[in-house]
What we know:
This protein is mainly alpha-helical. Helices cover about 55% and strands about 0% of the residues.
Amino acid sequence: MAIPHASITMPDLSEPLDLAIVALLAILIPVAALANRVNLPFLTRGGGLLTYGKFAQQASLKWLSIPSRLGMLLLYAPAAAVAGFMLSGMSAHGGRQALVGWMMLAHFGKRSLECLLLHRYSGSMPLASSGSISLLYMTECFTYVHYSGRVAAGSHMPWGLPVGLALFGVGLLGNFYHHYLLATLRSPGETKYEVPRGGCFEYVAAPHYLCEIIAWVGMAVVIQHMASWLVVIAITFYLVERAVAQSKWNRTKLGSKYPRARGHIVPFLF
Length: 270
């Protein structure tokens, strides 16, 4: 019996939608990697359209600011809505595409609930940052769900589904666990920054970013389409660069209390 050939499906660049998405991702990858290194106007973490969290205090667009909790919710809730909307248009037996839709809904739904119920916020963030990052997340969500339905039946690598689901589960739970550690680091009412402890915070500055990357990789393994791997590359560049910035911020803000042996994002490696 012939064994079907399994390979990564490539975008059809003769299709306008495929061409537009690939072109957007081709722009996002170098922007994610280089925006802060070369100080691209309006695209830096400390004053441009990629500003949120503690780096929002350096923002140059404060006259368009909104409360941080609302701003962070706006990052994730629209992408969760996109996943839900796409799921509503699928049949009850949507197969792998429906599965990816539920994975995206789980990912962005979790982040939305964390913004509402778990994280502690102070200050504000630029509305322009919320809108631009939210648009990127919606695009990435649409890309994953859309292209998961463009892979021909029988062409998936047989190990992709169990491996991808395992990576997604590890990434999702690890991301939540380290967010929980950050949220419970200080007692209610305290505003002083403390050295993160527990889990992989003992080894790196941003294990929650590593777990997020693992979750996105898991979904890409399930999908097995080149467009999803372009999303992974863009997210990885962005979160690795942000992890390095977080590490430098910790060493400056926390001084000698912060362990100098800690890496940035990958324990024992980087």
